[in-house]
Amino acid sequence: MKRACVIGWPIAHSRSPLIHQYWLRKYGIEGTYTKEPVRAEELQQFLASLKDRGLAGCNVTVPHKEAAFAAAKIQSSSAIAVGAANTLWFEGDALACTNTDTYGFMANLDQSAPHWKQSPGSIMILGAGGSARAVIHGFLEAGRDDIRVYNRTVERAQEIARHFGARVSAWPWDARNDHITDVSVIVNTTTLGMNGVGDTGIDVSRAPNTAVVADLVYVPLETGLLSSARKYGLVGVDGLGMLLHQAVPGFEKWFGVRPEVTPELYRLVAENIREA
Description:
This protein has helices spanning 16-26, 43-48, 65-71, 77-82, 101-112, 130-141, 154-164, 224-231, 239-246, 248-255, 263-275, and strands at 2-8, 31-37, 57-60, 74-75, 87-91, 94-98, 122-126, 147-151, 168-172, 183-188, 212-215, 235-237. With 276 residues, the protein is of the alpha/beta class. The mean pLDDT is 97.
């Protein structure tokens, strides 16, 4: 029986088991996927014992993503770009890692708003944390050359711009609406709007009618930013799709089948979120 899990502290909120257990049933695979609460001081010992525990690998959530990246012997380009890992597996006896947030975001964007590639203009990134880095890496790989990062602490945005190079620029938070008339994609990578708390303050009414608005927040599924985007006829892309798509590469590594993100899976996880 193949086994995998998700680790973090806390971990009770994770929807990963719901996703992977759905796929295990769908593809008739004899395997398990569980939640494992792991404190920061226990992480290295847990990772060293993965094989002894019978685990083919694991997902990693906060606060362990940076430490998991550092612990891996083999690091993918996406993990290096972000400086953090959320998926671990073994290449022989060597612990390997990647960051599937880039893949998850871009796959969801391509599926939900395929026209974004033909839409000219800048990419607006709200926030300068690890999720922002994953999203920026995806847009750079897609060939975009005007990615603007807006953050309350502009020094963090400047650090990201230095990390990624000339195609990424740093801007103060208060400048975000000054540049909205020429954006092609707006991405909220902050926690603003989570559980209905906070607001990005984006005036989407001034955005081009071809602009796409994506929000990484998925609790609630329809954030204030997405609701406003749809009100003005823009395509909105919620964060749940990213969560589902980012799970695909890990499942394939551990269980040997590349799973499909289906409407049924989306409805299953969405209902779980609404009931929480």
